[in-house]
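Entry 14. Two folds queued back to back today. First construct below, sequence then structure tokens.
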Amino acid sequence: MEYTNNHTMLSDDDLDLEDELEADITGPSPFNLDDIPVVQEVDEDDAVPQEAIFDGLFLHQEGAPSDGPTWEQTPVSTVNLSSVERMFRVNDRSSAIKLLHRRVNLVLDTDLKLASDDPTLLWQGSKHFLDFILVVSGKIGLQAFLPKTISDHNFSVTLNLRLQCREFRPKFGKLGFDPTGSMMAIGDGQSAELWLGFSPVANVEDINIANDSPLLSEKHGDTRLSSVHYRIGVMFLACCLSQIPSMPVHVMYPYGPRTEFNEWKIEDATNVLDQRVIVLRLQDVLLLHRLIKIQYDDFVANAPPSWLKDGWLQQHIPISVACRYGQNQPIASNDQHALRVEARNWHHERDYTDIRYLSMAVATHISCMIVEDWVEVPINDILSIHDVVYNSPDPDIRRPVDLHSLPLRERETKKEINIYNEEGRRIPRFYGRSRVDGPKCGLLVNLETIPQLFSSYVTHDEHLDLDADILDLDEEQGAKIKVYPQAFLRKFGHLQSDSILPHFKTFIRKVQANIARGRRGRDRMDDSDDDDDDDDDVVNRNLIPPAIIATGCQFYNEVSHRIRPNAGLHEVQQGRITSALSGAYARGTGKHVHSAIMHNCRLSLPHQRYNNAIKLDNVPRDLRLENIYMVKTEIGFKLGKKYLLLGWYIS
């Protein structure tokens, strides 16, 4: 790419980084790397404050005077993205280093941008994934681990009672109690982490107290049990396991061989830790579940005074929690048969009768490709699938259309004239042909358009300028939004919110209405006005609490999954070059840290490893929208067993 006319080339004087590092270091030592680990994680608490980001987005315009500190008063220089790309391509290290001495506003070249409605772009959003699920039981026992069957030769659970140091890390969903000092990891099963959550008795017995507890996204303390409480949990499980005939577990002293906890170890009382893991079959898990329910009260009642003095054992009971995240499993297939199989799998995965909360993250990939040409979909192909085709998604105003007489494009704008099916979904009249191996557009959110993104107004739609369904929803406070500009672009990046986009709320309302129908024995949804009004009356008249609650959403580019294994480990955010430069002054053990960092940088620099990770054309670059939902399954099953999950798919 070439520089634009208004850009001044930076000096080509080269700077050898290693020469700088090997220069005289006999002067003062302002840096000490003794306490810096080889691999650092970027803590969320160290992030730039959201107020500063929003000020940069909306308050400080380019070239505007500033009353801030010296750095804020530094003039802003503009550099085109093509210029930075050239620095990288020709290895212009001098120019790159000099960029660090000034405030730089990185801007996209005009020829690198396309309007979202450009006719050469193909937008798609038909791929959906389940990326996170959290299942919490509402009673004592292992309900969250149990499938809905009495026999399954493929089922197994692996207990591991040596996981005292594992923290409960989910940031979304709801437990129904504060997880601080309450979570005990006990193993894995069916691709999920298995936990015992020691919930306060009141939170289990009173669902209103559980519902009022904070979400996991809110601040809480260390989730791990204290050493004493962990030992209590292990001894109770050991006592239960010892009563399963097929288990090689025995307990000599259920409450330990000594009065005080600091006088004995678990190994002195039981052999449950002799095996690293204990594999349980379905029948073993069912028996363990029954033993936990039956014997916990007696275990507490017979505990010695030293076990009861802090009141924790009497005030808490163990409930089961299953957590699975990062699986990115495709869901919501367009194939109706596959969709029915998928719904059946959900139904058989576990018995939801005693499950209180089911939290999940459902991701939709929004992709964009440049097409070489558009090909008309034959009319007969459309009519073979859809009996009736409409001119609008709105049932109030839509009319059937005759495809044989309806033009393909508008006369003036040349835009496609949209048509819709019975459910109000758009039916494509063209499909785009593009390079199979060509790169997709890398999508980011325009952070300056956030107000429109969370608005109830439907832009660019002549039929739905204002979505009445959204306005009918209960008034609520505005969404709290956090933005994360990417690649120094300032205006473009990722975002998180404690709410979802307004238009998704209409679907949640329909699911809730479907549950109301379930009380009257109806199992299908009808979008007609009469039925919708009737459903609203049913919901209000019976005071049905919401069964599905949206707790947040986030937008980010899918390439994030390829460039870092988890949050905080982005290759170019570890500060390795800064550590290499400052480490020249290290003393003592800091020299070893500096040596390891220098070795890592000599092999390849962070930006080179990053470029190597994304250089393939087929690296995913879709914009990923994740909505977080919490399903109160107790409500759903009180209203009629299967209607909740089926309602999710029907809607």
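Second construct, same run, same settings:
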Amino acid sequence: MRGGGLLFLALALALAACGVAGHGVHPLSRIAVHRARVALDASAAVRASPKLLGSRGEDTHWVTVDFAVPHASDDDWIGVFSPSEFNASTCPDSKRSGQIPGPEICSAPIKYQLANYSSGYAQSGKGTLKFQLINQRQDFSFGLFSGGFSNPTLVAVSNKIAFANPKAPVYPRLALGKTWNEMTVTWTSGYDSSEASPIVEWGMEGSPPARTTADTATFGRERLCGEPANTVGWRDPGFIHTAFLKNLRPDKAYHYKIGHTLHNGKVTWGKPKSFKAAPYPGQRSLQRVVIFGDLGKAERDGSNEYQNFQPASRNTTDAVIRDLDNTDVVFHIGDISYANGYLSQWDQFTQQVEPITSRVPYMLASGNHERDFPNSGSFYNGTDSGGECGVPAATMYYVPTENRANYWYVADYGMFRFCVADSEHDWREGTEQYSFIEHCLATVDRAKQPWLIFTAHRVLGYSSGFYYSFNGAFGEPMGRQSLEPLWQRYQVDMAFYGHYHQYERTCPVHQEKCVQEGTVHVVVGGAGAYMSNFTTVAPPWSMYRDMDYGFGKLTASNETTLQFEYRRSRDGQVYDSFTVHKDNQNV
């Protein structure tokens, strides 16, 4: 490729790095924390109640915040801060010497609401708001700010409130292990392993429970690679524990609970949960897989200008929860929490999806909003991760990778093999990831696992998204160039992607033509973040397009028939479906 061709490729990669699929602006990034001033007004007040949260073991609690100011303005707002102390003394460089003054506030709130959400505030200067808080290991306080988001001035601070046990083990999340008969349990707590031993008590009904000790991990500010993650977005992640439950019996129900054994022998337990073990490779049984990308999080209390950033995240989460009795495993293929460097949002995401992750394996792929940052080793040099560079995602959630820095892995589930790629690292021929992808596809025993699925976050296959039409490839630049020969050679049944916020399904396609033995490519990036546009005219290989929020579901019960459904999040109903048929000779 010469001259203009090289320039075009550079432009295409630059546009891709900038998040051209349309990912919006994080609500917390609108607050100019570096400009914040502290000017407490004795005639202004904020009061939060109750002071003690979770006294009955709850992980969430509704809080009432009453506030008053002598002169109300439409741009006044209430911010929730945790830890409760958020003045200049808590800044990393607060003890530095020198004449240059530091910031007066150096941490972003974990959420906010506009004061005028309270009816009559503009006229009376008095208001009441409701916030839903979750257990995030630290206490809370509420700040009343004037000056809007651009020039915030703190005029009043509330009393402190806290959960009864802020260190409690919370938000369990299951994942498949490196072997089919292993399940992993990951959770978050405030207990370092030197303070209390993390354990999982588990077993089948009617059998004596076993106890398995968990590994413990965390990370510091220094491991993050840029702003806001290592500045105003930083929040201590607590301790993340992972236990490996081995030698499970296929398709059997297990109960479990997470906990910590204190030095005095007392155990602090989480809530009891249950899961079903995976089927063995080749087992012919009903196997159902939900798959989507770009979910993000949404506040149930209206905070952070709900509906402006991830409009459908809550709807999709609730729709999956409603159908959880008919779901065996979930794949969330990138753009997970959209924390974008505001680390408090990871806790809030894990709490939102906990009804799912505590019952079925929740498998992740890495997206641009987890990994990308300039000069950090990612394939794209965009800033979409907000300086996280994959560290929170790789620590908060377990996936069965050989190297946690490389987010590609194999997941075997009954009749399925999933080859999960990492589109934020180089996948082209000659790279380590290319070798992994080929090995994953080549080593599956199709007699046992007839259904071979490829997944990645970015569209390495086919999409008629509006941006992708500019580069002429109708997909990620250079995506199919290396990978399409592998999909064809190893007869990949389906490939799934996120990144573009819409739903699209192709025919069985190879080299832009519908063929009998091609791969069906599906974009399921419409789980939460706002919609992306299609091209005006659909290409011949595009069979169905929908600019609405939804998710996909695969169902297999034998080696010859695989059903796929696309469901909209608003009602959980099926709006597109198709069936892949094989004869026994092909299997």
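Quick look at the second one. Confidence is low (pLDDT under 50) at residues 1-23. The chain has nine helices and 33 strands.
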